[in-house]
Amino acid sequence: MVTEENAAALPGDRYEDLIGSLTELSRALAEDESISETLHSILTLALRLVPGCHAASITVVDEDGQPATVAATDPGTEELDRRQYLLRDGPCLDAARRQQVNSWSMAEAEQRWPEFTQLAQEMGLRSYLCAGLGMDDRRLGALNLSSRGTDGFDRLDEGLVTLFVPPASAAIVTADRYAQARELAAQLEQALLSRAVIDQAIGIIMAESHCPADQAFAVLKRASNNRRTKLRDLAGEIVARVSGARPPAGG
Fold first, then answer.
1. How far from 22 is each of 62, 109, 194, 240, CA to CA, in Å?
2. First and final CA of the chain: distance in angstroms?
3. pLDDT band at 9 (very low <50, low <70, confident <90, very high)
4. What local confidence, expressed as pLDDT, does residue 1 receive?
5. N or C: which end of the chain has fewer CB within 10 A?
6. What is the pTM of this model?
7. Residue 127 · residue 35 · CB < 8 Å
8. DSSP code for 228
9. Torsion angle defined by CA atoms of residues 38, 39, 41 and 43, in that order, rounded to the nearest 10 degrees
10. How far is 96 from 94, CA to CA, in rounded Å?
């Protein structure tokens, strides 16, 4: 963790960069940025704040435990993440599972993940710093930093990277809630469309059979059960027959 003591131990230029990066991060979070822009801003600032960092990405783990990269500083880093997911293990997945900040030198990573390390070395990346992302006991993923140096990160860097954990976690949760809200809105829209078609079909049956609405609905429901057809689809066929329009696709 960054404290007053170790912050004071920073060289003057790096201390000023730390203050500038935090100020910029606060501004980015306060502005009306998209969630994607916020995550990319976090990666950009991490690259600037941690001198040994040459590549960075953010991994998100869904409810089924499947990982995916939602932001990366370059396509190569995104591909490295993808290959790590195929291996089902590596620095970022380890940090996501354990919800820890882990720093791995090339020698340490090579001992534990030889296949991943070989892939990373082919890209010129030789050490790794990963921080688990989570909120309210929920595992969200990991923030992943890589370095070309064999020992690219120190204890201070481990503390600095924790500065980015809360905003990155909050952005991921916001994205998840936004996706859920969009899905709910789509379901509600579909339900309203279905209701409108069913109401039209009931009106047609009432007019043709000279019966009240409850009886018309019972006729429609009975026909739906007999034909093993969704109520909305059958209603769409009835409306299309009368209007001459093509019935809507089944939902």
1. 29, 30, 50, 61
2. 52
3. very low
4. 44
5. N
6. 0.64
7. no
8. T
9. 170
10. 5
Cα separation, 231 vs 144, in Å, equals: 50
Q: Which tens digit of pLDDT belongs to each residue from 171-228?
A: 888 766 666 656 666 666 676 677 888 888 888 889 888 888 888 888 888 888 888 8
pLDDT at 236 over 80: yes
Q: What pLDDT is attached to residue 247?
A: 52
Residues 6 or more apart in contact with residue 173 via CB below 8 angstroms: 135, 140
**With contact defined as beta carbons under 8 Å apart, do 57 and 72 qualify?**
yes
Tokens 């069913």 label which residue? 198
Give the distance, in angstroms, between the CA of residue 197 and the centroid of all CA atoms in the same chain: 36
Distance between CA atoms of 231 and 221, rounded to whole angstroms? 7
Q: Which residue in this structure is represented by tokens 């296949």?
A: 115
User: Residue 216 is encoded by which pair of tokens?
Assistant: 């018309």
How far CA 179 is from CA of 38, 94, 165, in Å, comes to: 16, 26, 21
Q: Does residue 148 contact residue 126 with C-beta atoms inside 8 Å?
A: yes
233-250: average pLDDT: 74
Per-position b or e across 202-236, b if 16+ CB within 10 A of its CB: bebbbeeeeeeeeebbebbeebbeeeeeebbbbbb
